[in-house]
Write a structure and sequence with these properties.
The protein contains 9 helices and 18 strands. By secondary structure, it is α/β, with parallel strands linked by helices. The strands form 4 sheets. An 8-stranded parallel β-sheet has the order 7-6-5-4-1-10-9-8, with helices on both faces. The protein is globular. It starts with 16 loop residues before the first helix and ends in a 13-residue tail after the last strand. The relative contact order is 0.13. It binds the ligand COc1ccc([C@@H]2N[C@@H](C)[C@@H](O)[C@H]2O)cc1.
Length: 448
């Protein structure tokens, strides 16, 4: 292997309490909110087809016009307790909030820049009340932070001249100051979700990022930081030059999902997902495919079945309101979670053969197996193939445990479970299997 000073510092998974808690979340809420929500994907009557939070990079909108928007930021409808209550009913166990997106505007009162909420008409901290409201609902808070910062004069995407390098040193110090400031101001933060770290300039900062990550972890022991923060000695991110995972979990699944367990390399991971095809910040005119609650529930279940967390994005509008499409989805998904959360929280991958009817999840604590059925077979028979020596002790409906099933053994270690569930149930049906304990191989019995 290649000698690295700033590569992965840990082989294998973190097994501490905070990471176990993270692993068992299942469902999270992403919130993208900032100045970009004011134009909402339009400028001077023109429609912007890109991601709304990237409108500053649109040729039809001058940077100067965007950079004046902070003078209009006054979200009188902002109600953090309402947001937190909605997230609770959705069933989210954690929330990731954009403290600073690529535009550099800070939703918290930062000592290190004037480009923050205190200099907007709104004038008050946004992050603090959000952290408080979500903590009160028992939803863990994580802070999204973009290293790339279009507002800071020292930011560079690449370091070509001596002047670049000097300016960038100031930018690095500014970045460190802001991150340590965030952890001081919001000490109940459980982790950081980094973005904007693909630039060549940042990829040269292995030593700086490594030291800073260590400092942040010292400030909040157990802090959870994904693979997207630091580059290794050769500028490799997510996986170091030896192929080992950087950070505590893989942060590579943005608007896409792994297909197989092999795709996850057995690591912890999260998938962050937009409701439309590609809008994180508020866009007032969603075009193209908007996902239904069935699609989002399937992505959630698929994520959990492959040992990942699924983080659904919300983009509040410029006044601080959650749009009606997201409110409707939160209610629909929440209704399904009310009945079926046992198949999500604390669950993960089960190594039984994947079947066409849907996904298995396994509760890590109890060993209970959940069949989440998205595709009812025409013959109503759900095929289950277990590893040899594992039987199906008890099988019943999660929603109505009095509805039990007698599996029909159709081959060795292969069964049909004949669906009885009423077709009226909205969303996928979940069947619980309590598998028989693996029978001891002969001779392995310890002497009594
Ligand atoms: C270069 O392509 C992208 C795509 C999306 C992003 C940001 N990551 C998502 C989590 C959103 O914050 C999006 O703006 C950045 C660069």
């Amino acid at each position: 292997s290649i000698a690295l000073e700033h590569g992965s510092h840990r082989l294998g998974k973190r097994t501490d309490e905070m990471m176990q808690t993270w692993r068992n979340y299942g469902l999270g809420q992403f919130i993208h909110w900032g100045l970009y929500a004011i134009p909402g994907g339009h400028w001077e009557g023109k429609y912007y087809g890109g991601a709304a939070e990237w409108i500053r990079s649109w040729k039809d909108m001058p940077n100067e016009a965007y950079d004046e928007l902070y003078k209009e930021f006054d979200p009188q409808n902002f109600d953090p307790r309402a947001w937190a209550k909605q997230a609770k009913s959705l069933g989210a166990k954690y929330m990731i909030i954009t403290t600073k997106h690529h535009d550099g505007f800070c939703l918290w009162p930062s000592e290190y820049t004037d480009y923050d909420v205190t200099n907007s008409p709104y004038g008050k901290d946004i992050i603090g009340p959000l952290v408080e409201a979500y903590d009160a609902e028992g939803i863990d808070v994580y802070l999204y932070f973009s290293v790339m910062d279009w507002n800071h004069l020292g930011y560079r995407s690449k370091l070509e001249t001596e002047e670049d390098r000097e300016a960038y040193e100031g930018f690095k110090e500014f970045t460190r100051n802001q991150l340590l400031e965030l952890l001081d101001l919001y000490p109940t933060t459980k982790g950081l979700w980094f973005d904007g770290t693909w630039d060549a300039a940042w990829k040269e900062q292995a030593a700086f990022a490594d030291k800073l990550e260590t400092e942040m972890r010292e400030k909040i022991p157990g802090l959870i930081i994904g693979s997207r923060f630091r580059p290794d000695d050769y500028g490799n991110r997510h996986f170091d030059s030896n192929g080992d995972l950087m950070g505590d979990y893989e942060q590579g699944w943005e608007r896409k999902l792994p297909e197989t367990f092999e795709d996850t390399k057995g690591n912890d991971w999260d998938c962050v997902m937009t409701v439309p095809e590609n809008q994180w910040g508020y866009h007032s005119d969603w075009r193209g495919h908007v996902k239904t609650s069935f699609e989002l529930i399937e992505m959630l279940v698929k994520s959990v079945s492959l040992n990942g967390n699924f983080v659904m994005n919300f983009g509040p509008d410029g006044q601080g309101s959650i749009r009606e499409e997201e409110t409707k989805l939160a209610a629909e998904i929440g209704d399904w979670m009310d009945v079926n959360h046992e198949a999500i929280y604390g669950c993960g991958y089960l190594d039984w053969k994947k079947q066409d009817w849907g996904y298995y999840t396994k509760n890590r604590e109890t060993g209970k197996v959940y069949m989440v059925v998205f595709n009812r077979p025409l013959n109503g028979a759900l095929r289950v193939k277990t590893p040899s020596k594992i039987g199906l002790e008890k099988v019943y409906s999660l929603k109505e445990p009095s509805v039990t099933y007698e599996p029909e053994e159709v081959h060795k270690d292969e069964y049909f479970i004949h669906l009885k569930e009423s077709k009226t149930s909205k969303g996928p049906v979940v069947i619980v299997i309590e598998p028989t304990k693996e029978k001891q191989q002969e001779g392995t019995e310890y002497q009594k």
